[in-house]
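Look over this one:
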Amino acid sequence: METGVRIVGNLAVQLVNLTKRYGRAAAVDAVSLEVLRGEFFSLLGPSGCGKTTTLRLIAGLAEPDAGAVKILGDDVTDVPTNRRNIGMVFQNYALFPHMTVSENISFGLRMHKVGRSEAADRVANVLDLVRLRGTGDRLPRQLSGGQQQRVALARAIVIEPKVLLLDEPLSNLDAKLRKEMQLELRALQRRLGITAVYVTHDQEEALTLSDRIAIMENGRITQCADPNDIYRRPANRFVAEFIGRVNLIRGSLEQRGATSVYRTEHGAVFAVPRSLFQLADSQETLHLVLRPESVQLDPRGSLREGGIRTRGRILQAIYSGSVTSYELEVDGGLRLRAEEQNTLGTSRHREGDEVEVYVDPAAISGALGD
């Protein structure tokens, strides 16, 4: 199998006003997006948001009611699945239980009428790629879940597809194996330089794997950006609350200047960067977006001027190994979430502790409408 440098610059997949309805409900509602060649692109959202339907439309497993699907510039909207030269990996692996590993992997090659000798070589190469050398004669039931997932992946990539489509392929694995497979999948995708479109409802998985992420809600894309922008600069409240843990501090802008004054609904007053409110009216209700890891408790060292400073009390402390999560109440009754790395192997604070709270203004991710 040919491997090479990852190429980004040409369009691999293009969706143009793609729409799919079931009755009156639009499962996919005028979705337009572009996936670059060599990119790992994820469709992320809650159940029922339209991400799997979008993937099925790209694959040709569902017919759109409107719009177009293009792969490498070719309009394939009306082209059957078996002529789109795509590879697919499903949540349930979909391996043939009566076939050996090698037979499962070579199934697509037979459908493409690849000669026996070439097929054997390609199967052997792909077994090496997915670290399954020596398992070709085994049946799926003789493999672990992770090994079965590798077989499904090998079967998809052995045909050298234009695009690899993956529908929540790791969701059946236990947590430890799932994380291991995420790293393996990302490394393999980069090594092959293949374009991947990945469906998941797992935010951490999407952040780990993706070059870019499209967040879907009610059949539409609500934000499409790289993982850092998705996490640090969410476009709206839905994205902010869906991606990880977040503090949304409700209040309004009271004064503009080089540093603006923001008053929370609990009466606390914060000095925050003016740039957060460039488009906001002074009386508009807004939410400051603040990730828990940006809330410092009993901070050490020098602190920047203009940050949020207050006192608080720990209401709850949840230890989870490397991280402790806190819920605290600060002056005025405002509730905040905070997270700290357990660098010394244990958490620094306990429930009931009084703490100083500081937030660097640069750590505030944005201000969103009500």
